[in-house]
Automatic annotation (TrEMBL):
Top-level taxon: Bacteria
Name of protein: Antirestriction protein
Pfam family, one: MPTase-PolyVal
GO molecular function: single-stranded DNA binding
Phylogenetic classification of the source organism: Bacteria, Bacillati, Cyanobacteriota, Cyanophyceae, Oscillatoriophycideae
Keywords in alphabetical order: Plasmid
Length: 298
């Protein structure tokens, strides 16, 4: 039963994603909001794949705000879900302790396992507050979105990048990671339309760098145009989105329209490909954040 539910979620998310990509939209690469995706009441910032899952539904439904909460949380406020509204599914995953019996000694011991659960949440656009004294609009006023100015370096991101001690070269028209020399090549910051575009592209290449055999060890020798190449690009795009979300960067990636058909091919042939790529991207994110001193507790 659990496996069947997982497959249903994979198909649900992938079908939504394909719908967006077929219209030329990459939901993880659109600067729709200056506020981060989060729980509307607790202000808990969504991490990992969850901001992307929320953004897919936000774009498809033309919702205005990136704020969500559970059915029970809404009910406790006197807010009700509007008829016909559909939930957004987000994931919780992590390590948990389980008590298991040793088959030989019959002794009970603690065993750590990886687990994942799905939770349904609703965007605030799906809620009706007319019968409650607590108004959604009043809560919205408490949020103050971050603003960014073009070409002003972001100190926190610069500190993160410098801590990696990576080999890099600025200049020229190409952004790429070269595995053979473990080097990142980037155009000059002034060549980008915005500071967000610069950092999102830079972080994209930094995620590629985690694929080196000395780090997360992913295949980096796939020929351009192959499924493996497109899959690695998807990992880097998602990883960049995770990092931008972590640092609060409101970003727009450079156009990668040449990859869209390859991504469609990957997603259409394997309904779990998006979540597989997200898992690899999250591994890269955890490796990078764990390697630096800018980590924050969840």
């Amino acid at each position: 039963m659990v496996a069947a539910k997982t497959i249903d979620k994979n198909e649900l998310i992938t079908n939504k994603l394909i719908t967006l990509i077929e219209t030329g939209v990459k939901p993880w690469a659109k600067p729709w909001h200056t506020a981060q995706y989060q729980n509307f009441l607790t202000s808990h910032i969504y991490r990992g794949i969850n901001p992307l899952l929320c953004q897919i539904d936000l774009i498809l439904n033309n919702w205005e705000h990136p704020f969500f909460l559970s059915y029970q949380q809404a009910k406790a406020q006197g807010w009700f879900v509007k008829k016909g509204s559909k939930a957004t599914w987000i994931r919780w995953g992590g390590v948990y302790a389980a008590e298991v019996e040793d088959p030989q000694t019959k002794e009970t011991k603690k065993e750590y396992r990886n687990g994942c659960r799905w939770f349904s949440v609703f965007n605030i656009a799906c809620l009706d507050d007319t019968k409650s004294d607590r108004k959604i609009a009043e809560r919205l006023e408490t949020f103050s979105p971050k603003k960014s100015e073009d070409f002003n370096a972001i100190p926190e991101v610069e500190a993160f990048i410098n801590s990696l001690q990576l080999a890099r070269h600025f200049g020229g028209p190409i952004a790429c990671y070269i595995p053979s020399s473990d080097t990142i090549r980037m155009p000059k910051p002034s060549d980008f339309n915005s500071v967000e575009g610069f950092y999102s592209t830079y972080l994209h290449e930094i995620v590629h760098r985690t694929g080196h055999s000395s780090r997360c060890d992913r295949p980096l020798d796939n020929p351009k145009g192959s499924t493996g190449y497109a899959f690695e690009e998807l990992i880097a795009d998602l990883g960049s989105a995770f990092l931008c979300n972590h640092f609060g960067i409101n970003y727009s990636l450079e156009n990668h329209t040449s990859y869209l058909n390859s991504w469609l091919q990957v997603l259409s042939s394997d309904k779990t490909a998006f979540l597989k790529a997200a898992q690899k991207a999250n591994e890269a994110f955890n490796y990078l954040i764990g390697e630096t001193a800018v980590n924050e507790s969840e």
